[in-house]
Amino acid sequence: MEISLNKKVIVISGGTKGVGKQLALQCAADGAHVVISGRDEASATSIIEAAKKSPGTIEFKKTDLHNVSSIRELFAYVADKYSKLDGFVNYAGITPAASLIECSESLFDDVFDIDIKAAFFCCQEAVKLMQKTGGGSIVLVGSTHHTRGKKDRTAYACAKGALYTLSNHIGRHYAEDKIRCNYLVMGWTPTDGELALRKSQGMTEKELREKAAKAIPMGRMTEASDIVPGIMYLLCDSSAMLTGSEFTINGGELI
Ligand SMILES: NC(=O)c1ccc[n+]([C@@H]2O[C@H](COP(=O)([O-])OP(=O)(O)OC[C@H]3O[C@@H](n4cnc5c(N)ncnc54)[C@H](OP(=O)(O)O)[C@@H]3O)[C@@H](O)[C@H]2O)c1
């Protein structure tokens, strides 16, 4: 089996941080042309610099996922420059903590805007472009929360549940266009976003790792290096018949 992304054009929403960033670097190392989106220009510049000697390329397109026209500009850029799209990875997401009882309207709107509305309109553009160019692979980064969620993450759990439905919907209805879609259940990972959330709750990285190690049957947190190869497999031609799956990389963690 070969995992090759050589010359493939791949868009990663949220490619400026965490797993998205590591994925972009690995895809470029494998010869892919990667377009990362996000808002953090300084982070994007350092990622592009780190990929300079790679056989592939990384470009940054500043995108605010609160804004559907910004999403459309991202995909229009890719269509103009490459005239094709082989892969789209929806990694961007926010995970603020709030229970059903505590959740404000603005927190709910924020979570739904980024975690499902933006993903929906990114997929709309990705599918339209892939339909024109012979198909492609979409990976929607989800979470164990999508089935019911922890008590302090209600809006997040509901948005990830909707994302799961979107993944199956695309997998079922666009297979005839050779477009695949899989839902990646990502494990508990010490990303920039997760570390910032825990810091705001008064927890250090060491304390986070100790707490997670007790909750995860494999005894440690998931790392970007555990997840990136799985996403690359979902993007490459070796997984050509894999669609509509719940692809789980979480060390056996269940909520
Ligand atoms: N960490 C975990 O334990 C865990 C577990 C399961 C699933 N996940 C999933 O992993 C993904 C990343 O979450 P994370 O908390 O780990 O964060 P992260 O690594 O810090 O990444 C978040 C990404 O989302 C982008 N983003 C956020 N808001 C945006 C906006 N308005 N416009 C454009 N881009 C935006 C950020 O880009 P900029 O900063 O450049 O704007 C960043 O690249 C989410 O889909 C989350 O559900 C995480």
Structure notes:
It is a single chain. The chain starts with 8 loop residues before the first strand and ends in a 6-residue tail after the last strand. Strand 1, helix 1 (about 20-30) and strand 2 form a beta-alpha-beta unit. The chain has one domain (about 10-185, about 220-250): Rossmann fold. The chain has a 7-stranded parallel sheet with strand order 3-2-1-4-5-6-7, with helices on both faces. Helices cover about 45% and strands about 15% of the residues. The model has no long low-confidence stretch (mean pLDDT about 95). By secondary structure, the protein is an alpha/beta fold. The longest helix has 28 residues, at about 105-130. The structure holds NADP nicotinamide-adenine-dinucleotide phosphate. NADP nicotinamide-adenine-dinucleotide phosphate (NAP) binds near residues 38, 39, 91, 191 and 193.
Please supply descriptive tags for the structure shown above.
single chain; 255 residues; alpha/beta; Rossmann fold; 8 helices
CATH architecture title? 3-Layer(aba) Sandwich
The CATH superfamily is NAD(P)-binding Rossmann-like Domain
**What characterizes the major β-sheet?**
7 strands, parallel
Distance between the termini: 33 Å
Average pLDDT, to the nearest integer?
Answer: 97
Ligand roster: NADP nicotinamide-adenine-dinucleotide phosphate
Q: pLDDT below 50 for ≥5 consecutive residues: which ranges? A: none
Number of domains: 1
CATH topological fold name: Rossmann fold
Q: Counting H and I runs of at least 4 residues, what is the number of helices? A: 8
Structural category is alpha/beta
